[in-house]
């Protein structure tokens, strides 16, 4: 099965290299995506541009692919479920939850000169970055690509309720499956509260398991694909 891999803020497709190399021997074809504005040098990219890139990858896949979103890109994976509910085998959400219709995509940090640069490690101290050593932090920060304002401030649009039929796997890194279930049941994650098939999977990592636990994450993704 094709497994489309979408990194979150400031990341391009290379962040999935370790996961991709571990997935191939498990019988699946990893397809890391470099999104418009996050690796192609375009600071004018919009959320619609990123959505179009994800949908193009879905449409190009043979059979039904599995779409994997990390962090804020969980929303991109969920938009794919909304736009292509009959084409997806499954949506996997790593370390995040999908925004609801009408919400901003990722209006999280200061925008300067038309982009949202990586804010440094201060906002991520604690469970998010606990398993990143100094070398990993420096490497991630050096590779961080400022996110265009047109992406970060884009408005999420969801229109097809068939998205709730797409099976979901929520991978829980810096939080536990029990916490995720509590948030969903409390109505804090309205999109997943309405999803008909949601599995919660634990991984003992911080917010970037593709960096710190690539082989384990690959096994989780392969198991999800096999179950589909």
UniProtKB/TrEMBL annotation:
Domain of life assignment: Bacteria
Residues annotated as domain AB hydrolase-1: 3-219
Family annotation (InterPro entries): AB_hydrolase_1, AB_hydrolase_fold
Signal peptide positions on this chain: none
Protein's recorded name: Esterase
Species of the source: Streptomyces lomondensis
């Amino acid at each position: 099965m094709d497994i489309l891999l979408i990194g979150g803020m400031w990341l391009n497709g290379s962040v999935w290299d370790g996961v991709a190399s571990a997935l191939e021997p498990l019988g699946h074809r990893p397809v890391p995506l470099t999104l418009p504005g996050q690796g192609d040098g375009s600071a004018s990219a919009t959320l619609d541009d990123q959505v179009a890139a994800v949908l193009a990858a879905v449409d190009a896949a043979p059979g039904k692919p599995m779409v994997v979103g990390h962090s804020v890109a969980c929303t991109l994976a969920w938009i794919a479920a909304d736009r292509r509910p009959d084409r997806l085998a499954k949506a996997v959400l790593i370390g995040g939850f999908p925004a609801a219709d009408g919400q901003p995509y990722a209006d999280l940090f200061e925008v300067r000169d038309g982009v949202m640069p990586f804010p440094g490690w201060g906002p991520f101290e604690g469970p998010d970055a606990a398993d990143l050593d100094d070398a990993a932090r420096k490497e991630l920060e050096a590779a961080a690509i400022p996110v265009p304002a047109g992406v970060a401030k884009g408005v999420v649009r969801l229109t097809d309720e068939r998205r709730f039929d797409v099976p979901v796997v929520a991978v829980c890194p810096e939080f536990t499956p029990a916490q995720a279930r509590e948030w969903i049941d409390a109505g804090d994650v309205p999109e997943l509260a309405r999803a008909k098939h949601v599995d919660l999977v634990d991984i003992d990592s911080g917010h970037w398991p593709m960096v710190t636990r690539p082989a384990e994450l690959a096994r989780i993704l392969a198991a999800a694909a096999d179950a589909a």
